[in-house]
UniProtKB/TrEMBL annotation:
Protein name in the entry: cysteine desulfurase
Catalytic activity entry: (sulfur carrier)-H + L-cysteine = (sulfur carrier)-SH + L-alanine
Species this chain originates from: Bacillus carboniphilus
InterPro entries: Aminotrans_V_dom, Aminotrans_V_PyrdxlP_BS, Cysteine_dSase, PyrdxlP-dep_Trfase, PyrdxlP-dep_Trfase_major, PyrdxlP-dep_Trfase_small
Family stated for the protein in its record: Belongs to the class-V pyridoxal-phosphate-dependent aminotransferase family. NifS/IscS subfamily.
Length: 384
């Protein structure tokens, strides 16, 4: 039985082209980019080229790219970095109730340090209200951190509108774009983004590397103290093989971005069509139109998500009930709670399907049919 991986929002397989591209930088080009001899100069040249690729993907300047150990560090550097660097200007931060825990827990930590944080509510489609954001802004607001596209339900936030509002306010605009990067077209300067976080392992690159875009002129308090790497903003010898792999993954993602979107839309339509034709009870969580194409979160009415996940795994199908960062947690999805309230049946009956490299139309069809079969067996065992 061939296994089917439909949990690409948790992590994605490394593209074989990326693996091949990385090997020379572990075997031969192993120099430290800070060294002045030929080995170091070769490494520095490769690092500079990777930075240019990363910058080009979001229409930024290479000097505005800071390589990190991943999305979590990028989020932390953006939020803590701005908060500590600009605390004399104000102590108010705005975010949403549906952010990734890398953002939420960083903000909660800042509250312990005397900062005030406003957690904007989201509606049943997963979006914030622009009017609510405008009302939350004060003269003490120094940062607004709002996710580009949600990692659990796929909903896209009104990023251009937020950027326009903040263009006339002192607050910097940070967006966690970990799920959207490589899927959505991004032009940070055009839509008014000041800081943007990404992660390699979501775009078929290696784990343990990402980058933070920080607009020219923004001061950041450093989280790490040591050498002067990344123009004194992130100390530590750069993980060159991983950065090189990330740059290759970025290039590939940009080349076939539109084709991927079309394919993932088809996968989503196929899955929903199978469920509709089978007449099982289900509801889609998230925005019906303004959503990431590779994520679909579905509530199967009356079904227990844990039982469904186990049964699907036994059939060789990997899906999830939400963020991989909360795996094993007994707490319900904070995103679904924010959308529907903590008494909603959707919280205990929802599954996230996320598509990516290696998935085929045949796999989606098989997965959809297996879900239907499992639901029918579970209902029969309950005498429904």
């Amino acid at each position: 039985m061939d296994k089917i991986y439909l949990d690409h929002a948790a992590t994605s397989p490394v593209n074989p082209q990326v693996v091949d591209y990385m090997i020379p930088f572990m075997n031969d080009m192993f120099g430290n980019p800070s060294s002045i001899h030929s080995f170091g100069r070769d490494a520095r040249k490769a690092l500079d080229e990777a930075r240019e690729i990363a910058a080009h993907s979001i229409h930024a300047n290479p000097s505005e790219i800071i390589f990190t150990s991943g999305g979590t560090e990028a989020d932390n550097l953006a939020i803590l970095g701005v908060a500590m660097a600009y605390k004399k200007r104000g102590n108010h931060i705005i975010t949403t109730q549906a952010e990734h825990h890398a953002v939420l827990r960083t903000c909660q930590n800042l509250e312990k340090e005397g900062f005030e944080v406003t957690y904007l509510p989201i509606d049943e489609k997963g979006q914030i209200s622009i009017e609510t954001l405008e009302k939350a802004l004060t003269e003490k607001t120094i940062l607004v951190s709002i996710m580009y596209g949600n990692n659990e339900v796929g909903t896209l936030q009104p990023i251009p509108e937020i950027g326009k509002i903040l263009s006339s306010h002192q607050a910097f605009f940070h967006t966690d774009a970990v799920q959207a990067f490589g899927i959505e077209k991004m032009d940070v300067h055009k839509i008014g983004i000041d800081l943007l976080s990404t992660s390699s392992h979501k775009v078929n690159g290696p784990k343990g590397v990402g980058f933070l875009f920080a607009k020219k002129g923004i001061r950041l308090y450093s989280l790490l103290h040591g050498g002067e790497q990344e123009t004194k903003r992130r100390a530590g010898t750069e993980n060159l093989p991983a950065i090189i792999g990330f740059s290759k993954a970025i290039q590939i993602s940009q080349l076939n971005r539109v084709e991927k979107q079309t394919q993932y839309k088809q996968f989503k339509e196929t899955l929903l069509s199978i469920f509709e034709k089978s007449c099982i009870d289900f509801e889609v969580n998230g925005h019906p139109e303004e959503s990431l194409d590779h994520i679909v979160n579905i509530s199967f009415t009356g079904m227990n998500v844990e039982s469904m996940l186990v049964n699907l795994d036994l059939m060789g199908i990997a899906v999830s009930s939400g963020s991989a960062c909360t795996a094993g947690s007994v707490d319900p999805s904070h995103v679904l709670v924010a959308m529907y309230g903590n008494r909603s049946g959707r919280i205990s009956s929802s599954i996230r399907f996320s598509f990516g490299l290696g998935n085929t139309q045949e796999q989606i069809e098989r997965a959809g049919k297996e879900v239907v079969n499992i639901i029918e067996r579970m209902k029969k065992s309950k005498g429904i």
